[in-house]
Amino acid sequence: MSRWAPVLVLGAVLMMTVAAGCLGDAPASSSPVYSLGDDGKLVITGTDPVYDEYLPDSTEVNGNVTVSEIVFHVEDIDVHALCAAPPDPVAGVVLVPGAGVTKEGHRARIISYAQKGIASIVLDVRGNGGGTTGHTGGLQEDYRRFATGDDVPQWWQTIGDVITARRMMTERHAVPVSIVGSSNGGMQGAVAAAIDEGAAGYFGVSTAGFGDSDATTDPSVAAFIRSIDAGVYIGDISPRPVWLFHSRADGVIAFDAGYALFEQAGEPKTFMEFTGGHGIGGEVDAAITDAILTLNTPENE
Fold this sequence. Notes:
32% of the residues lie in helices and 23% in strands. The protein has 301 residues and is an alpha/beta fold.
């Protein structure tokens, strides 16, 4: 028998509890609609969470934390995610990995967050090599889709997936849910947090915007860049809080580019320089979880 078993085998009562996204008259899948507003910013509707949940053959419990796999049904794609949740969380996060990093790369991280009281879900981003299918042509392929209208840019679809996951976590746990993104995931997460008014806040790690989209002489390229540029959107997250983290030793995204994104954010905002290189580490994990728990203690609610 496979390591993961569908919740259905555990009985109808449990199925009704943990797979509520698939009950009743719900559609077989969600159908997001993507468009650009008059300001050139992305507009996404139809991100209703429709999903199945799968538990391990032997329920995986770390302390009081239960780990499960969530499969969101989005049009004709199954978007896979890994969820870790304590019995009574005080807050939640949606974690968006960087390029080439699968959900399994953050398994220990989301369990550690959940052990502190923060229900956590990490996506297998489209095209990252995990359980979620997707093209590997990068922004070049996405621009082709944008320019020809043949298909929706995958970057847009990932932003929609983040919003869908945030909605599921909020509906399921009834707690404030923030978006955490690393590297490319931080870029996508910033746009999602700006578009999604239900997101409680945004944490971006080793990330940046795309710079001046007006610098290109091609108006089509400029429009595409504007539609996905974290720097264009990050000011819209205010008055919800923004935290940005960057290392001066980052060899992938320059420290100055990360700080420039911070300068574009509205208040309240916090910037933290951390030791190390590129991506989330223990120092950043501690800062993120401390900030979320501080915001969600009774005296701060």
